[in-house]
Design brief:
There is one protein chain. This protein is mainly α. It has 2 domains: about 10-110, no CATH class; about 115-180. The protein is built from 5 helices and no strands. It has helices at about 10-25, 35-55, 60-115, 120-150, 155-180. It starts with 9 loop residues before the first helix and ends with a helix.
Amino acid sequence: MEEQKTSAGQGLGVAGLVVGILAVILALIPCIGWIAIIPGVIALALSLVAFSQANKGNGSKGVIIGALVISIIATSIGLIQIVFFATVASEGGHIMNKIEKVAKEFGDEFEGEYGKDFEEAIDEAIEDVGKSVEKVGEDMEETMERLEEDAELSDEEKAAKMGKAAGKAMKEFMKEISDSTDTK
């Protein structure tokens, strides 16, 4: 004959499950998930006590095992975040030194290749693009003025000419950008 299961440990098991779920939700929040260790440990303690009670009183263990698993996951995620932040805090300066070293090497390599530093090259490129945009704008204004003076053209003909002028201006603009970004 099969033994009947009791409700031993079920209250604490459900409480452990609820607190464990809250801990998992908290653990999944970036940067503050390490706080999940507190409810995770509480859920783990509740679940372990409930498991012990269920063993002694022949209680059902399904919910309790679920609570144990959830609380272990939440606590683990919180611990992983603590280890991550501790590593970043202790190695952060070292990592920044490596980044600065790589940036300096890049700058030196760029200057050796192009004869000017990277910031200077970017400033020149921005200036060239600005001049190209101004030229395209001036060309478009001239086209608009010519079209407005030509009273014989219908609106459709003006729109067609404006479209052609815009296409030509876009081609010139792309050529200017290509010319300004070409290397040596």
